[in-house]
Design a protein that fits this description.
about 120 residues
């Protein structure tokens, strides 16, 4: 998306519950809706709590979502399919597992959310 700024439903940076969770998780992450892989994402609240500033169990030293730093957030690496590469060296499976990769625009939404403060 280049230099495009994504505006959330409130006119500010995207918010997890309103802008990101419905697009990224609902309909794409059926496994995590069932608590697969040690990551529970059954609703916006629990998924946010299990992602933001929580260390990955697959990539030592990296947070699933490092607030303000999408480039070092393991979630973004999983969505882009680069989680198995340096510096992450984590599980190489691209998410959503068993489904088509998310669009560049959807991944950009996640990055904008993280870089904009990762608000619930």
């Amino acid at each position: 998306m280049g230099n495009t700024t994504i505006v959330g439903s409130t006119g500010d940076a995207p918010r997890w519950a309103d802008d990101v969770y419905p697009v990224v998780v609902q309909g794409n992450c059926g496994c995590h809706l069932q608590s697969s892989g040690g990551l529970t994402m059954t609703n916006a609240q629990d998924s946010w709590q299990n992602l933001v500033e929580v260390y990955s169990t697959q990539a030592a030293g990296f947070k699933r979502v490092a607030v303000g730093d999408s480039a070092n957030s393991y979630l973004v690496a999983k969505l882009k399919g680069i989680a198995g590469e340096v510096p992450f060296n984590g599980n190489p499976a691209q998410m959503p597992k068993g489904g088509a990769p998310l669009s560049a625009d959807t991944i950009a939404l996640v990055e904008e959310w993280i870089d904009g403060g990762a608000a619930l």
